[in-house]
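This part of the workshop introduces the protein records we will be handling. A record pairs a protein's sequence with a compact description of its fold. Comparing a sequence with its tokens is the quickest way to learn the format. To make this concrete, we reproduce a full record directly below:
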Amino acid sequence: MLLKVLIALVFLAMLASLATGAGFLLRDGTGSRRLLVSLKVRVALAATLLGLLFFGFYAGGLGG
């Protein structure tokens, strides 16, 4: 159960990072690095999500 909650939280954090990145893209000028930082955070969250999913399927906590 804890694994599913962690997966959901990481997914929601990815969506929040996507929304903030879109906001930075619309508001900031070309000299801002906040969009790049948001992308790095989103990539790290995606890697974490994939790791949690692989672990969940390997350990038997997810799937049939």
Q: What stands out?
A: DSSP finds two helices and no strands in the chain.
